[in-house]
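Dear colleague,

Following up on Tuesday's group meeting, I ran the structure prediction for the two-component complex that the binding team flagged. I've pasted the input sequences exactly as they went in, so you can double-check that nothing got truncated or mislabelled along the way. The structure tokens for the whole assembly follow below. Feel free to forward this to whoever is handling the docking comparison.

Inputs:
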Amino acid sequence: MEAEIREFRDHISRYPPFDGLSDDLLDEVAGAVEIAYFKAGTTIAERDGSVEALSYIRSGAVEVYRHNGQLYNRLGEGDIFGQLDLLRNRPARFPVQAIEDTLIYLIPKPVFDRLCAEDDDFADFVELSGSRLKSTVEQSLRNNDMIATPVRRLISRLPVMIEESASVQEAASLMTENDVSSVLLLKPGDGEDSDHVFADTEGRQWLLTGMITDKDLRQRIVAEGASPQTPLSSISHGWIITIQSNESVNEAMLTMLRNNIQRLPILHRRRPVGVVYLSDIVRYETNNSVYLVNNIFSRTSVKALARLTPEVRASFVRLVDEGATSRMIGGAMSSVGRSLIRRLVELAEADLGPPPVPYCFMVHGSLARNDQSITTDQDNAMVLHDSFDPKRHDDYFRELARQVSDGLNACGYPYCKGGVMATNDQWRQPLARWKQYFSDWIAKPDPQRLLHSSIFFDLDAVHGEARFAEELQDLIAIRAKASPRFLAALARNALGRTPPLGFFRTFVLEQDGRHNNSINLKRRGIAPLNDVIRVHALGVGSRAQNGFERLDEISSAGALPAGQTDKLSYALEFLSLVRMRHQAQEIKDDHEPHNAIQPERISDTERHNLKEAFQILSNAQSFLRFRYPSPSR
Amino acid sequence: MTLGTHQRQASPSWADYFTGQAQVCRTLALKAFYAAGVPAEERPIGKVPLVALDFETTGLNPREHAIVSIGLVPFDLRVIRPAAGRYWVVKPPRTLTEESIAFHRITHSEVEQAPPIAAILDELLAELAGRLVVVHYRNIERPFLEAAILANRGERCLFPVIDTMALEARWERQGLLQRLKRLLGIQAASIRLADSRSRYGLPHYSSHHAKVDAIATAELFQAQMARHFTPDTPVSDLWA
């Protein structure tokens, strides 16, 4: 190889998208390079000038501007420009200026075309905005078995079933015969109106009523000294949680975690086709967040729970390392967080006695959205039954809230700086009062007040009367979409935190061209993105809390232009995942994980994708302003 | 043929000299080289086709030393085209000294298998024809090429060159400020190729290789033009 080709090639091959090219294609690029020099301050590309080559910055730096003169991007060594114009066969869309003395390697269009044709990754990289992020996110989804694999793959045998009118002895011998530790209970399903009615091969209708396990036989029959002739129906729990066969292994795992169960019947439509065991999933993908949740429920003191903190972190790191998606990690960490709260509430109730009136322990923020990461405040509240009498009952609930909140703090979930905690009298109120709060926020949307209350609009029950939280969700879903002023105020608040433009060398590049040394990915990316998604979700009357689920509903409601919800979903996945990866790295380096990231710790590919995610967020914010304008009075 | 040289000194014009040589030269390649002409003195540099040329030699004296390799790359003020450039290793008439081999990183076997310069002279002249030659340090390429052509073709070959080192000396070595600095004992800036390049933000190229150096020279010339001149500068302000 000629020396100058080696010289060009050595440089080009260090930077994406060239770093993934085959040797042959790299040689072809290096062999075709042409060179041009531009003094600082000179124009490299005029708007509407013809574009015949891809520009690669060998040294120096350039700025790309929008039509309106606004800074679009700042690029340095190893960056490329002109790819979009080449792909579209159009004149230069954005003018480019050298801001330092700059040497450009020009890669002629025919070579560029060949690279696009022969290397899919290269083509994805230079393709229009969105698809690069898309391909990265999709790749990580493909690489992740747990989310791609349907749970039916784990089925190894047909479910063992028995009529619930049979005796426990019959059930026990059937289980022994089949060497299983659980059996599904059925009763004739004629005339039953239930999701759990199915027809067997002979066309008979059956109703799936429950499941009996070894443990039930031990606890409810043997330990109680009950007769082996006891009918199964009398020891049945009377309810059953199931999963559809085409749901993912991950979803099955989360369902078991959420409900603290070890076995999950799998249905094909309504027909039971198998039972998946927690151990099956553990065997499938070693993942100790399952053990962790079991562990949480077996701890009998706050101190013992607090000692699990390193395990929580280790489980987080393992999930990140195994290439789990942000949605899976967020789901698993939220399960851990919820289990911890549940256990703390159980311990407090054991200490204080049963609650004087029914109540719901409710969470907000990331736990409500099921997207919890590792560094997170506690955001919680209590909804009390309307028969609540402060004089008689509040001592109990105040103390319960204190114990849970202190416990969470001890377990690595620090107190909420904004005071969104059930310990705060304001956020420990009867259902009617909560309804009044939300009605007021929606009816009289003062942006300043909303700024502090928007956190409450992500809410979910963790313990107690889930229906209280559901009633609030319903109220929000119905009222919010009918109140353009509320949506406009919420939209305005969602524009408060803007993303940066991208990165330049070791700096975060702000929209106005300023530099910063680090970026808080949560504050500048994930949180504002969640704000945008929340406005659209409330706008379509969605009851979903999770960002991805909200996007699905926004998409089905057709509230955003085609493709937009996909882009938002890729951006959310990517931003969340980068934050989690960096937090996992901090933990591995024995540092306290946080949300601030130094640009020098961001890989080249991450930079490109982050920039794109920021762009998607920025566009989504602009669209929000247009979609939910402040109504003129 | 000494006449030609005298004519050049007497005549104000390279163009006249080229026209004359095209008539009198017997060697076809030289005839064609001169017939392709040379830009008029007032021609703006931005409109002139250029070729950066670099030789690696066994020493500095064209009468004692020989050319080992030749690199060239066509360019203009807009773009440099390495793919259209050429590179030859040639076999010097005398054996290479160990030092110069080590310096150039050209191996004995490469040189042994290479053609003698006589075999590639015509091709080289064809590449230079119609283009203004740009070199870094004019006391190598022009005298070595002239000596090679005289030895192999028996005719003189002279042409104007732009010397990026001499251009660099204009603002780094000459002028009142530079003289003052020298009086005060301040070391003058280096005008070697790599050092000159770094003043323009040009990257470091690792190879010592005639074609890479030709490309490096072309880049330096583009940078000098961008910083100190305009594309309208007449060639006579630049060449020697």
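Chain A has a mean pLDDT of 87.

Cheers,
M.
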